[in-house]
Amino acid sequence: MDFSEFLQSESSRQPHYLLIGSPISHSISPLMHNTALDHHGLKAEYHAVAVRNSEIATLIAHFNRLEFLGANITIPYKETLFDAVDTLGMEAAQIGAINTIVKRDGKIIGENTDEYGFRVPIEEYEDDLAGERAIIFGTGGATKAICYALREIGIEEIVMVSRRPGRYDKRSDIIMCNYENWIAYAEQAAIIINATPLGMVPNTDASPVQDHEVEVLAGKICYDAVYNPRETTFLKQAKEVGGIPIEGLDMLIYQGAKSFKLWTGQEFPTGLIKMKLEDVFPN
Predict the structure, then answer these.
(1) Burial of residue 207 (number of CB atoms within 10 Å: 0-12, 13-18, 19+)
(2) In what order do the strands lie in the sheet with 157-161?
(3) Virtual CA dihedral for 140, 17, 64, 142, nearest 10 degrees?
(4) What is the pTM of this model?
(5) Phi-psi group of 223: left, alpha or beta (phi > 0 → left; psi -120 to 50 → alpha; rest → beta)
(6) What is the C-alpha to C-alpha distance for residues 267 and 270, in angstroms, rounded to an integer?
């Protein structure tokens, strides 16, 4: 629902967590977190709210309401709300973006659990990735967390593909390029990551990789942060040429698990949630 509609509802006067973003209608975070809250018998609800830029000040004021318990943040506000919190968790401060808001001891704390969510599904490949090159499509807030995770597992060089490569404040281990020349860096890459919305419902035919470029995915780990649909066009391309596809649903689940632990101190019922999501996103 719209944030203004939420503020006028009875739900806003009850203990609640929020997903903040725009658009948010596609999100399954409410299903995951309400399942977890019910599982632990916690008296709160999780709501997805679409927030306009003009409502940011009202949103920040809402964080101080007693009924507001915490939030997840998605596109396009992971960087917008970075300076709106009282303090930052260690990962969030280093990444430069937040995706979780925690209330503790009267303070609004910005955290980043995207790094953890991204890293868990590729832990089995860490030895293969150490010292290697990664290619990432996209330069948004999630990309910052992905870069942090890649450095943590020992990736030596990151090639970032952007439509406006000159606008990104890059580090020494980052090479910027555009969609016309990224292919020149692909042969030596061990992992290729889609951190853009390309391929997300409803535009499921889209992919950052053009048809004539698909062969470079052969033998490489191909990780898509998009989770709806589970098998994106990018992942289909990877499978067709012998790439190793990793879907985005696990990234969503594990970042949610860490957020839930930060809010409640309780473990996410990951098995139960995966069972519920199988009904929503069958293979």
Answers:
(1) buried
(2) 174-177, 157-161, 133-137, 189-194, 221-224, 244-246
(3) -10
(4) 0.91
(5) beta
(6) 8
Burial of residue 93, with CB atoms counted within 10 A of its CB: 0-12 exposed, 13-18 middle, 19 or more buried: middle
Q: Is 78 a catalytic residue?
A: yes
How far apart CA 23 and CA 145 sit, in angstroms, is: 21
| Residue 136, beta-bridge partner list | 160, 193
Spatial distance between the Cα atoms of 89 and 80, rounded to a whole number of angstroms? 16
Q: Which of 78, 103, 144, 258 is catalytic?
A: 78
CA of residue 78 relative to chain centroid, distance: 10
DSSP letters for 130-185: TT-EEEEE--SHHHHHHHHHHHHTT--EEEEE-SSGGGS---TTEEEE-TTTGGGG
pLDDT tens per residue, the chain (283 residues)? Answer: 999 999 999 999 999 999 999 988 878 999 999 999 999 999 999 999 999 999 999 999 999 999 999 999 998 999 899 999 999 999 999 999 999 999 999 899 999 999 999 999 999 999 999 999 999 999 887 899 999 999 999 999 999 999 887 666 556 789 999 999 999 999 999 999 999 999 998 899 999 999 999 999 999 999 999 998 999 999 999 999 999 999 999 999 999 999 999 999 999 999 999 999 888 876 6
Starting at the edge strand found earlier in the chain, the sheet holding 68-73 runs 45-50, 16-21, 68-73, 100-104, 107-111, 87-88
- H-run or E-run covering 91: helix 90-95
